[in-house]
Amino acid sequence: MSSKRKTKYIFVTGGVVSSLGKGITAASLAFLLKRRGYNVKMQKLDPYLNVDPGTMSPFQHGEVYVTVDGAETDLDLGHYERFGELICTKESNYTSGKIYLNVLSRERRGDYLGKTVQVIPHITDEIKTCIRSIETKDTDIVITEIGGTVGDIESLPFLEAIRQFRQEIGRGNGIFVHLTLLPYIKAAGEMKTKPSQQSVSILREIGIQPDVLICRCERPMEDEHRDKLSLFCNVPRPLVFEEMDVEHSIYEVPVDLAKQKVDTHILKHLELKPRSLEIKDWNKMLKNLIEPKNGVVTIAVVGKYASLNDAYKSIYESLTHAGISSKVTVEIKKIESDIDDVSPARFLKDVDAVLVPGGFGSRGIEGKIRTIKYARENGIPFFGICLGLQCAIIEYSRNVCKLRKATSHEFNPDAKHLVIDLMESQKNVTEKGGTMRLGSYPCDLKKGSKAYKAYKQERIDERHRHRYEVNNDYREILSDKGMIFSGLSPDGELVEIMELKNHPWFVACQFHPEFQSTPLSPHPLFKGFVKAALKHRDS
Ligand code: GLN
């Protein structure tokens, strides 16, 4: 038996292919352990060399998830917060880039004078420090997910570091969970265990024997598969679990894992008491999600990356959450905003509401602006987020305030009417990485506004990621023409929410509300928006 330790560690690795849903699986484990009364923290280690994903295109990386303390991170952290009912921080995501940057900065400072700086031990030691950095004195369990797929050259230092880490803390204090794939070969009519055997053998070659196998599969596993996997992967049979494709929603994953008692087996290995599991509210939420009483509403999301599933992940999830609270299925119509020659009437005629998400750069802007004009003029509920707010301001300036050349500094710094301008704090910023206005900031709401009605409180906190803002020189002309600035920074300097009076629901915010919505606690603005969509559908 290993010496008792307060904080236990679960390391989650992935084998065979990427996109297995490692993040969702890890987050589901966090949910179950939390619901058994343990204080859980989550972390992801990403093998790529960017210091953070903030400078990557959504084509490369999908959504950039922003933490309360302003870190630009991997989208899996969104799953961690939505499932795990926990808050992630800067310590929840480290990349190889950040780890190398730390080590190399120390090397330049002279901290290693006289020594050769090497992957082992210097990089692996730094990885272990990062792993430990998330632990506080009241943390019971840390779940650390290793990005990438076992067998990738890039992830080797991480695997070596977690091997060492578990060696140091002892078996009963740490566990290796390996998520793998059992592909179904149609021609043979069989599910295959060989790729999993091979990925476990790569792990074993580097000294990691997985304690638990979770097998992703399209069809149920048979006894024969469990026997084979147990024998060849050297994992006790009761610790070989199946994670079948879910029927309706990713939020079913924790329930499926709980049915197989994955969580209690893990607790036993970690020498922790099983405690009882309390998930009635989650099951009720699932029921509302799967069998909604109020049918379907269709919401158009008009963005530059609409066709990429991962680019607006948190927005799509937040819409689903709001649907749960209104007992309605939200069907999302994804529309690419490069629609310069198509009339919005064509793709908006059968939708109940329109959302324009955040983004960067000028591609697709005119399509978004025309979409917003159509929604405004036709009383279609509209929700603008970040760039979506900026486009709504430009649209109103051009078409209602008659400032025909209105635009944002981001698209044309020399234009006559920069109704969206670079924030004062951004004017001397030259570096791109991690330099936007990032993380949580307070905002004060105007009583009587739609925003106030949604939140039901005066002071809110929301997460930001932007460089540009409403230009205060144009506030008066915009409000004279009926625009309401219903959310402002406490010093009154920054417009955080705008809305329109003579419209059923036209609200836009400079922050990203999608980072604070969970299935059990849908975000107030998304709730208000989906309710408005429902009303529009029935009108
Ligand atoms: N590109 C805009 C800005 O930097 C909007 C950013 C966003 O939508 N996240 O202000």
How far apart are the first and last residues' alpha carbons, in Å? 67 Å
Spans of 5+ residues with little confidence (pLDDT < 50)? Answer: none
Number of helices: 18
What is the averaged pLDDT score? 95
Biggest sheet layout: 9 strands, mixed
Q: Give the strand order of the largest sheet, numbering strands 1, 2, ... along the chain.
A: 13-12-14-15-23-22-21-18-19
Q: C-alpha Rg, in Å?
A: 25 Å
Structure, described:
The chain has 18 helices and 23 strands. The strands form 5 sheets. The protein has a 9-stranded mixed beta sheet with strand order 13-12-14-15-23-22-21-18-19, with helices on both faces. It has 539 residues and is of the alpha/beta class. It starts with 7 loop residues before the first strand and ends with a helix. 49% of the residues are buried. Helix 1 runs parallel beside helix 3 and helix 4 packs across helix 5. It is globular. Bound molecules: glutamine. Glutamine binds at residues 358-360, 386-387, 410, 465-468.
